[in-house]
Specification:
It is a single chain. This protein has a single domain, classed as Alpha-Beta Plaits, CATH 3.30.70. The protein is built from three helices and four strands, in the order βαββαβα. A four-stranded antiparallel β-sheet has the order 2-3-1-4, covered by helices on one side. A hairpin with a 4-residue loop joins strand 2 and strand 3. The protein is globular and about 50 Å long. The two termini are 29 Å apart.
Length: 101
């Protein structure tokens, strides 16, 4: 499965930024060893249900250590027969279609 998550603390720094808290969450995800990628809006994580959800929980609770309230947006893609290697493969399939016109 692949999940796309966005974790946001209730508070921000003096500029309205939340990058410190987001970095804490991304650090947890990267240290998990699961395939992942971060973009401007979400972090994608790939793995089995239980291991992915455990990492999501740990990342949320890490942000909660410095914020009294935490928001989580989670979108999941579960496709039988396509359990691994899909972070890159999904993008490659779209890029192939774009090249083919």
């Amino acid at each position: 499965m692949i999940v796309a998550i966005s974790i946001s603390p209730s508070g921000a720094d003096e500029t309205g930024g939340v990058s410190d808290a987001v970095a804490d969450a991304v650090r947890v995800i990267r240290e998990s060893g699961l395939p992942n990628e971060t973009n401007a809006m979400f972090t994608n994580i790939e793995g089995e249900w239980d291991e992915v959800m455990a990492v999501v929980k740990e990342a949320v609770f890490r942000v909660a250590e410095t914020s009294p309230r935490v928001g989580l947006v989670l979108k999941a893609d579960l496709r039988r027969g396509f359990e691994t290697g899909q972070l890159a493969a999904k993008v490659e399939r779209v890029e192939e279609r774009l090249r083919d016109g």
